């Protein structure tokens, strides 16, 4: 197993005075993104499922972040949650509206919510395919549209970042219901970049490789498979959620001000390593 331990980024304020919203922000990659957005000075609104487990995850995230603040009581001024099913159009409308109600604006939007339940193609139930399409693709579409309308109304542009996947570029035998949704998310960012550039709104996609999260926790318990996957990486290790947070901050900041419609592959060198 890799001995890699994620290291904290230096304390900076790349996103000072910016307001951000993120879907699926209480576990895995989304959780790491929320922490780094706040670490870089942003205020953040988080969407998650309206269930006990997700609310508990948000509460623990809130406590973790509060403990890092000079004044823990400030947490309620920089972090809020808006529970709801992101596959439903009305959830996105409410999410963005409550974000603006709290922070007065929206500068950054991250479409991160997604699911991936591995299943053999020939026996894949229609409802499993429909669930993945609804959460991964429909959710990204509705929330991006709602965020873009808000950014346009303020007239100051903004940055929209969608978490796609390396699976948008390669196939997977047990992912025939998942990979098309991630290719769709990438395509959505490309077309949205064309549609929204006139308003100063940038749209980019991040394509993570194999990142250790709850989505693949069971799959990676197979030591032989895990070692094989690590061997595929040019860097020799699997990704950590914090490895995605940095690129999100980059795309959210003015350092990427001339980037739109781009796809940023963050995979440890898996795609280019055919050994």
TrEMBL record:
Signal peptide: none annotated. This is L-rhamnose-1-dehydrogenase. It comes from the Eukaryota. SUPFAM superfamilies: NAD(P)-binding Rossmann-fold domains. GO terms for biological process: fatty acid biosynthetic process; rhamnose catabolic process. InterPro entries: NAD(P)-bd_dom_sf (IPR036291), SDR_fam (IPR002347). GO terms for molecular function: oxidoreductase activity, acting on the CH-OH group of donors, NAD or NADP as acceptor; quinone binding. Keywords: NADP, Oxidoreductase, Rhamnose metabolism.
């Amino acid at each position: 197993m890799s001995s890699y331990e994620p290291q904290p980024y230096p304390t900076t304020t790349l996103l000072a005075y910016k307001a951000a919203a993120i879907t699926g922000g209480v576990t895995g990659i989304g959780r790491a993104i929320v922490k780094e957005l706040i670490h870089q000075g942003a205020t953040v609104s988080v969407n998650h499922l309206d269930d006990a487990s997700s609310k508990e995850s948000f509460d623990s995230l809130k406590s973790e972040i509060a403990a890092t603040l000079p004044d823990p009581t400030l947490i309620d001024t920089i972090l809020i949650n808006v529970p709801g099913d992101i596959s439903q159009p009305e959830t996105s409308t409410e999410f963005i509206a409550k974000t603006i109600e709290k922070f007065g604006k929206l500068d950054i939007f991250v479409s991160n919510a997604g699911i991936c339940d591995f299943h053999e193609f020939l026996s894949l139930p229609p409802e499993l395919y429909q669930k993945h399409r609804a959460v991964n693709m429909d959710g990204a579409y509705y929330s991006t549209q709602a965020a873009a309308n808000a950014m346009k109304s303020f007239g100051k542009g903004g940055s929209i970042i969608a978490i796609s996947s390396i699976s948008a570029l390669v196939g997977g035998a047990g992912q025939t219901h998942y990979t098309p949704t991630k290719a769709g998310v990438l395509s959505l960012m490309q077309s949205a970049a064309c549609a929204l550039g006139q308003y100063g709104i940038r749209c980019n996609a991040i394509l993570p490789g194999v990142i250790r999260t709850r989505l693949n926790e069971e799959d990676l318990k197979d030591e032989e498979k895990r070692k094989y996957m690590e061997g595929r990486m040019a860097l020799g290790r699997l990704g950590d959620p914090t490895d995605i947070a940095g690129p999100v901050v980059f795309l959210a900041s003015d350092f990427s001000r001339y980037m739109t419609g781009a796809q940023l592959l963050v995979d440890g060198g898996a795609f280019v390593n055919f050994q």
